[in-house]
Amino acid sequence: MAEKLTNKSTHVSSIARFSFERCDIIKSLFEQRCNEEELPFETLEDDSLRVIDGDMEVRFTACGQDCAFHIVATRQLDLIEICSTITEGLAQIDPSLSKLSWSHAADTLDSPDCLTLATIIEREAIGCSWWRLVLEVSPVEITKFLGAHWHVQVLRPGRPGRDPVWPVVNAHGLVEWPTGQNELSRRVFTIRSVDQSKNTISLDIYRHDRGSSCRWAETVLIGDVIGLWGPSGRRGPEGHSILVGGDETAVPAILRALGTLPPTTTGCAVLMVGDEGDVQPNPSNQIAIKWLFRARGDDLVAVFCETPMPAPDANLWFAASQEQARAVREHARGDRALERSQIKALTYWS
Ligand SMILES: Cc1cc2nc3c(=O)[nH]c(=O)nc-3n(C[C@H](O)[C@H](O)[C@H](O)COP(=O)(O)OP(=O)(O)OC[C@H]3O[C@@H](n4cnc5c(N)ncnc54)[C@H](O)[C@@H]3O)c2cc1C
């Protein structure tokens, strides 16, 4: 059963109608995306597909060649993001669909409130595995980061040394991202902490061998300005009983979650890091953390899948690579026979 959309009284909505011969392709991609992102979807009586997930509702209907997407969201930035993501996906199926018009376009301002400019004021190594960047934003904008959304896209020029050109919202109501020489690097990171008294937020960026973000974090200068797109995305693990797992990219979200869960939540977490030097203080008294070490050859998926459920109705939350998330999802549905609503196995990188 789909989750209810909250705050219906304050929602914003948009519709795009279009004609397309192969609606079945759109439908199957819609289903695939929902499965990958663990979004609960259902098929309605009129054969339309609907996903409702906390802050948003997306519905796809098709009658012959007549197709429509209906979107409802609680924040305008989510609406714009969802419409843009859908348009980008449709354009990959058929480039002519990139001209789709959304009904909210007339109400949209050209300066998206989901873009925040932030100044880097500090960089610190956390163990051997992360760079912690402390970013300062304006006193007005810090309030954006106090809510339930924990993730941002970090925007910086894709070509080092270029001045950044920021995205705008165009006349179709869609985000227009700079292209060519001005293309931006856009990588998702978790807001590890927010300090409203100092107007700062911090991000922990994993130092893996292949990452351009790591190279950037290594050479970034205090005083550099970057863009933050969001916040969006969901919180970390929640529930009265939880089994949590993740690699270095998920450690910031998991530790933040462990520090904010109510004292009634119990369970355990299995976290993969480089070695003993990466172990961080456990912010929770009631969730035990089992630290795994790459240097020792530990296997995150194997240990996570062998860990007993803390309670039969516990929620399982896991985030790491696409391959590992898929293995955990299959294990949770198969061997553990959990309900879909109990499982969040998320791809943090691929
Ligand atoms: C909701 C969400 C929250 C996230 N939070 C964080 C966070 O707080 N901190 C954090 O560090 N990351 C986080 N990530 C993951 C991060 O977005 C990706 O790891 C991203 O690819 C990093 O960009 P990059 O420039 O390092 O590598 P990219 O330029 O994207 O990729 C370059 C190469 O590195 C490989 N690669 C990417 N990530 C890894 C990895 N972890 N290990 C090994 N190889 C990798 C890619 O396959 C590719 O071959 C989060 C992702 C999501 C979806």
Can you tell me about this structure?
It is a single chain. The chain is of the alpha+beta class and 350 residues long. The chain is 20% helix and 35% strand. It has 6 helices and 18 strands. The chain has helices at 23-36, 76-93, 212-219, 251-260, 300-306, 322-333, and strands at 12-19, 41-43, 49-53, 56-63, 66-73, 115-126, 130-136, 151-157, 168-169, 175-176, 184-195, 200-206, 225-232, 241-246, 266-273, 287-293, 315-321, 343-349. The two termini are 29 Å apart. The model has no long low-confidence stretch (mean pLDDT 91). Flavin-adenine dinucleotide (FAD) binds at residues 151, 187-190, 204-206, 208, 210-214, 233, 249, 252-253, 348-350.
Oligomer type: single chain
Helicity, in percent?
10-25%
Heterogens: flavin-adenine dinucleotide
**Helix run count:** 6
Give the overall shape, derived from the CA principal axes.
Answer: globular
User: How much strand content do the residues show?
Assistant: 35-45%
Task: Say which CATH homologous superfamily of the largest domain is assigned.
Answer: Translation factors
N- and C-termini, Cα separation: 29 Å
Strand order of the largest sheet: 6-7-12-11-8-13
User: What structural category do the secondary elements indicate?
Assistant: alpha+beta
Quick one: CATH class of the largest domain?
Answer: Mainly Beta
Q: Which stretches are low in confidence, meaning pLDDT under 50 for 5 or more residues running? A: none
Overall strand count: 18
Which CATH architecture of the largest domain would you pick?
Beta Barrel
The description of the largest β-sheet is: 6 strands, antiparallel, barrel
Strand/helix succession:
EHEEEEHEEEEEEEHEEHEEHEHE
Overall average pLDDT: 91
Please tell me how large the radius of gyration is. Answer: 21 Å
How many domains comprise the coordinates?
A: 3
